[in-house]
Specification:
Blueprint (H helix, E strand, L loop, with lengths): L1 E3 L77 E2 L2 E2 L10 E2 L2 H21 L2 H5 L4 H17 L12 E3 L7 E2 L1 E8 L3 E10 L2 E10 L20 E2 L10 H14 L13 H16 L2 E17 L5 E15 L5 E3 L2 H6 L4 E2 L2 E14 L9 E14 L1
Parallel strand pairs: 1-13
Antiparallel strand pairs: 2-3, 4-6, 5-7, 7-8, 8-9, 10-11, 11-12, 12-15, 13-14, 15-16
């Protein structure tokens, strides 16, 4: 008996090369549990859709919806970034504070968007290394590798002119800024660029392809037009940014809803996806184990209502293991592409890079935390 593993819900993804109308990136086409109905990946989510580029010019549009049926035991996602056949370890996203105006940030962003589009068109790993850092780079390279395996190209294109928010400290410097672009009927994407010794590099990306995309809270700015960054242990919120991140990942890993979070594709719907996947696997004599670990810094901007808009990354692995002989499992989506559609009789696993943006309301608001966008890419997929 052969089964196909479903894609995680929230993985309806934008791929690493997200695509968007004017300055964006391309979206991924696999749907994984936690990225359910929305866009996952930088590609333009293709969980159902297509066509428009993100980093450069087109954007694929993803349909919001759950991932593939959980009937088969596997799931799809891209494999680890590889260059010349060898796995590539992405360098850490070390930062360096610099004096930065909003105009300077816009120029840095536009240069990144233009060069990303070119790198996507050529599927150039080396060029990507000059544009991105850390987990973002690893995820983008993974998307390239999946496309090469399929014999296709990643989407490329530019997103519309973005809004730019630059936080600064008491010394008037910063080591990061955020750009948010919205293409109606396509997606809202956010890009976080970090100052490194080698220049500005993209270190986080998220997208929401729902129509209409959920509005982002208003960012608080001072008289000079600058935003305010918050520490990971910021008080006065429903939860500190660090607590919210760990609670979100713990909920996904345990496939247990957490009332701290509002319902959505990357919260309760992702949990439901994983529960259904687990039930399907157990019926076939297989066991599902989930692992989520935070990766990189937690970046937060203060909102006008006293809340926080938070960006964070994670690495997850979903491991399927046979507990009795009989059924085989075939991974779907990018993970299936990476494993050549092989049916596995003993084990099957996929490791993803994930990025999220979430809104944490003030403690006195009576609201819950809302996860407002994500990006997922398969970094590795294996089976025996």
């Amino acid at each position: 008996m052969s089964r196909n593993a479903s894609d995680p819900p929230d993985k309806v993804v934008w791929r690493s090369e997200r695509i968007a109308p004017i300055t964006g990136r391309d979206i991924d086409d696999d749907a994984e549990p936690e990225r359910l109905p929305v866009f996952t990946g930088r590609k333009t989510v293709l969980s159902g859709i297509t066509l428009l580029a993100v980093g450069g010019v087109l954007v694929w549009v993803v349909t919001s919806g759950a991932s593939e049926p959980a009937t088969t035991v596997a799931r799809s996602t891209p494999a680890p970034a590889v260059t010349d056949g060898e796995p590539v370890e992405s360098p850490p996203a070390e930062s360096r504070p610099v004096a930065l105006t909003v105009q300077d940030a816009r120029r840095a962003h536009d240069r990144y968007a233009r060069d990303l589009s070119l790198a996507q068109q050529e599927m150039d790993d080396r060029a990507l290394g000059r544009l991105e850092r850390g987990l973002a780079l690893e995820m983008s390279k993974a998307a390239f590798e999946t496309a090469r395996t399929q014999g296709t190209k990643v989407a490329a294109g530019l997103w519309p002119k973005p809004d730019i928010w630059v936080p600064r400290d008491t010394a008037g410097t910063t080591d990061w800024f955020v750009a948010v672009a919205h293409e109606p009927e396509v997606a809202r994407v956010s890009k976080l660029l970090t100052s490194t010794p080698d220049g500005w590099r993209l270190t986080a990306f998220t997208a929401d392809t729902h129509v209409p995309a959920a509005p982002l809270p208003e960012i608080a700015i001072d008289a000079d037009g600058y935003a305010t960054s918050l520490p990971e242990d910021a008080s006065g919120l429903l939860a500190t940014p660090r607590q919210a991140v760990h609670a979100h990942l713990a909920s996904l890993e345990s496939a247990t809803p957490d009332r701290l979070f509002a319902d959505g594709p990357w919260t309760d719907q992702a949990v439901t996806f994983w529960r259904q996947e687990r039930e399907q696997l157990e019926k076939a004599g297989w066991e599902l184990s989930l692992f989520y670990r935070p990766v990189g810094p937690v970046r937060s901007l203060m909102t006008s209502d006293g809340g926080a808009l938070v960006w964070y990354g994670a690495r997850s692995t979903d491991l399927r293991e046979a507990r009795r002989a009989g059924a085989t499992v075939t991974l779907n989506g990018s993970a299936g592409v990476r494993t050549g559609g092989t049916a596995f009789a003993r084990s099957a696993s996929a490791t993803y890079g994930r990025m999220y943006v979430a809104y944490i309301p003030p403690a006195s608001s009576g609201e819950r935390v809302r996860v407002l966008g994500e990006w997922s890419e398969v970094l590795e997929s294996h089976g025996t």
